[in-house]
Design goal:
2 domains, 16 helices, five-stranded mixed sheet, two-stranded antiparallel sheet, Serine Threonine Protein Phosphatase 5, Tetratricopeptide repeat, alpha+beta
């Protein structure tokens, strides 16, 4: 079973587009104010080690959607005026730059398709290519996204210059899980994360994993998000291969269960340990991961229990395995094949 995450890449603080399976969302903020325009609800953000952030979703989706449309829209319109330019500024603009500004305005207004139509004409500007790639990714235009991101990569040292020039901030989210996101400046790290996602969606897992391996050389060891991204890719693509399992185990290493990111790394490590036959240490790893439940979603906890149940069954500990399966069933009767394993039929 593959557990999907959502990772986000922070270009600059302020405007956030969420690229999850439920579709894009938008937030605009500044001077301590952030307004979220998402049908999913409101998010809060907390610091994590290494300059990263953990983002958690709150509230009822429909209620928050209605609120965003009524109470927050005027502020969004006011904030988008930060992108207005006077006549003389427009005269001095190149065509690329004018399209970039138009794209940003549409982006800030939540019009992803229209924003992309402008940004796609501004890809000679690194920030334009970067944002065009991110928006195309959110619209599931993966081949188009890859073209823009590779163009941004050719001038990666200039990323962020135009955002800074216009005083515009933006954050773009890229899928690690559906519950968590990481905010990242528009630099080589963020670009590689986006490229890896685009490579995945265009079926080039080798390029995706190579990109993430290269990223690991550029970042400090405490940056566990890039490690989690690579581990997930390896597990999804070659999870049964012994050499891949050894790489996953080495990538995770020994680490505390401090955040949901750590929890998922422990899950993938345990799975790799099981597949190379180290059942006892795999069981201990899963049990350690399950000791901490705060800020862990039900889906993640059930995935850990399910992995442990499979392991316990293989070890002949059927009563203990059934206990985990019953716990899963009590919270989600439709989780994987739990009902079938418990001999509960419709």
């Amino acid at each position: 079973m593959s557990v999907r995450f959502r990772k986000s890449v922070k270009i600059l603080p302020g405007v956030r587009v969420n690229l999850s399976k439920s579709g894009p969302s938008l937030s605009i903020g500044g001077s301590g104010l952030t307004l979220n325009y998402s049908k999913l609800g409101v998010r809060t953000t907390a610091d994590l080690p290494g300059g990263l952030y953990y983002t958690k979703l709150h509230g009822d989706a429909d209620e928050k959607t209605a609120k965003s449309k009524t109470e927050e829209a005027p502020t969004a319109e006011a904030d988008s005026k930060k992108l207005d330019t006077d006549f003389f500024d427009r005269v001095r603009m190149s065509e690329d730059e004018e399209q970039f500004v138009k794209g940003l305005k549409e982006f800030a207004a939540g019009n992803a398709e229209t924003a992309l139509s402008h940004l796609s004409q501004a890809t000679d500007i690194p920030d334009g290519a970067f944002l065009a790639g991110a928006v195309a990714l959110s619209l599931e235009k993966y081949t188009e996204s890859l073209q823009y991101l590779e163009k941004a990569a050719a001038q990666k040292e200039k990323l962020g210059e135009r955002f800074k020039k216009y005083g515009v901030s933006s954050e773009v989210e890229v899928p690690i899980t559906e519950e968590i996101s990481v905010l990242q400046e528009a630099d080589e790290r963020g670009l590689i994360l986006l490229l890896a996602e685009a490579y995945q969606h265009t079926g080039n897992m080798e390029r995706a994993t190579d990109a993430m391996r290269e990223l690991l050389k550029l970042i400090p060891p405490e940056d566990i998000v890039a490690r989690l991204s690579l581990v997930e890719m390896l597990s999804d693509s070659k999870g049964d291969d012994v050499e891949t399992c050894k790489e996953i185990i080495a990538l995770v290493g020994e680490l505390p269960n401090e955040t949901p990111f750590h929890t998922m790394l422990l899950l993938y490590k345990a799975r790799a340990l099981r597949k190379v036959g180290l059942n006892d240490i795999a069981k201990k790893t899963l049990s350690d991961a399950l000791r901490r439940t705060k800020d862990r979603s039900t889906e993640v906890l059930n995935t850990l229990r399910y992995e442990r149940a499979i392991l316990l069954e293989a070890m002949g500990q059927k009563a203990a395995a059934r206990k985990d399966l019953e716990t899963i069933f009590a919270s989600d009767p439709h989780f994987e094949d739990v009902a079938e394993r418990l001999n509960i039929s419709a």
